[in-house]
Request: fold
Amino acid sequence: MDIKTIAPDLSVSPQISVQDVGIAASQGFKSLIINRPDGESSDQTDHAAIEEAARRHGLEVRYVPVVSGKVTDADVEAFDKAMHELPAPALAYCRTGTRSATLWALSQAGHLSTDAILKTTAGAGYDLSGLRSRLEARDKAAEGGIGPVKSHDVVIIGGGAAGISTAVSILKRRGGVDIAIVEPRTEHYYQPGWTLVGGGVFKREQTERQMATLMPKGVQWVRAACAGFDPERNQVILEDGERIGYKVLVVAPGLKLNWDGIEGLKETLGKNGVTSNYLFDMAPYTWELVQSMKGGRALFTQPPMPIKCAGAPQKAMYLACDAWKRRGVLKDIEVEFHNAGGVIFGVKEYVPALMKYVDKYGIDLCFNETLVAVDGAKKTAWFDVKDADGQVTREAREFDMMHVCPPQTSLDFVANSPLANEAGWVDVSGETLQHTQYGNVFGLGDAGSTPNAKTAAAVRKQAPVAAHNVLCVLDGKAPNAVYSGYGSCPLTVERGKIVLAEFAYGGKLEPTVPQWMLNGTKPTRAAWFLKEKMLPNIYFDMMLRGTETLAKPKLLPHRPASHEAQKAVDFKDAPSTAA
Reply:
C-alpha cells in the first residue's frame, strides 16, 4: 500500500485490495472513503468487496464515487460530509489517490489558504497546482465567512501525556481557568509500557485507557484534529475549518512515526518476522517472535535522532536476548544492533553498564548504519553504511527476525505552520518552553524543539514549567519557571534489572534520588521494580492527575513581560471574530 498522509484525520492512497483493508485496520485507520467508481478497470476490486472486508475489520465505509476529471461541488460536499461523519483517521482512495487528494483540497478552501493547501498536497506527492484558480475562487466565496469564534483562556493541542499533564497542572494552581483540549483520539496509551509488552512482561491492555476517563474535570474536550495555526489572530484551525480562539496556546500533539521513510516497511510490518514496539497493535507480535525463535539472525535498528526515548530500540534487544539466554538458544542466534548514530548511548556515564550486557549477549554493534529498505518476503534489509570518511555504501543483511524503530518527524500540520523552526518542530525556548516569536504560545513534549530526550519522564518535568508560565502570561508577567532538560530512560537490560538513566541538558546527570539510594549508572532490581510496578500508576494516577512530587519547577525572579505576552492578555478585550 502506498498511503500518503494529507491531514491528521485523512490519508489517501491508490486502489486498495481486500487484503489491504486488514493492513489499514492494523495501522489504526477507523474508516474508508471510496472515491473510485466501480468498473473503471477490469482488475480493480469493486466497492462492495471492500465494504464487506471493512465490516470484518471493524471499519466504517462511505462510497463517494467521483468520475475522473469531473470533480463537482456536489462531490466535494459529499466528501466533506463523509469526513465529518466518519470516525478518524480515515483512508480515502481512488485509482491513484489524486481524486481523493483533490476532494480534500477543495473541501479546505475557505478554511486554509490556497498556498497551504497546495503545499500540503505537494508534500504528500500530489501536484494540484492546476487547482489554484478553483481553490482561490472557493476561498474568495468564503471570504468574510469566518463567523464568531469561540475563545478560551487556554487551548491545548494534544491529549497525550504533555497536553493532559499541563492542563491539570494549570488547574491545580488556579481552578476555574477556561481550558480546551483539542484531541481526536478516544484512547490514551502509556507508550513506555509497550517495551514490556514486547518483552512478555505486560499485557497491552495494561497500557490503554479511555481518553474520557483521563480528561481533567472542568476542561472542554474538543474531539477533533488540529489542521493549522493562525497565531496573528490567536486562533487554531480544526480539521473541519472551525476556528477556536485563545489567550494562550499550548502545542503538544506529539510526533509522527514515519513508516514511509523506510521502503517496503509498511507492507511487511507485522509479518515475515518484522515487528516494532512503537505500535500498540504490534508489540505482542514482538514477544511472539521472541518466543518462537530458536536460531538465525535477529536485527534491531535505530534511526537518526530525534526519536521517542533513545534507549527504546535497545531495550527491545536486551529483553529479547535475556529471554533467549534463559531458554538456552541465544548461542544459536546472531544479534545485531544497527544504529544510525555513532555511540550506543549519548550520556557516557551509562555506557560501561550497557557494554557489559552487549558483551554478555554477544551483540554485534553496527554504528553509522541506517535502515533504508526492507523486503519481508525475501527476509532482507538494506542499510546505508557511512565510513570514517563520510562515504556511504548500501549493504544488505538477511534476517530471521527484525525489530524496527521507525524514523520520526514533526507532524505535518506543525511542520507547515508559522510556529515551526527549520527542522519542523515547535520553536520554543529550552528553558521556559515559550515560543521564540509568539509570547502567548508554548510547546512541550515530543513536538517541541527543546534538545532533550523525548520521553514521558521529560514531560513530567516540563508540564509544571509550562503550567506556571502559562499563568504568568495570563497575568501579564514574563515566564519565570525553567526546565533543566531533564529526561529519563529506564534501560531494561534484562528481566529484573534496569539501568536508570536520568540526565539533563548537556548530558549532566540529574538523578531523582541520591545515587547512594539508587545508582542509576548500574543495573538494579530496585529500578526494575520502579519500572514494572510503580511507573504505570505514577503515570496514570499521579502525573495525569497533577501530582508534582519531585517535579516542582525552579522559579527565577520575575522580569517585565514581553510584547507578545502582553498581547495575549490584551486579547481578552478583543472581539470574538476574525480580524
Summary: Residues 150-255+410-483+557-571 form a domain with the FAD/NAD(P)-binding domain fold (CATH 3.50.50.60). Confidence is low (pLDDT under 50) at residues 563-579.
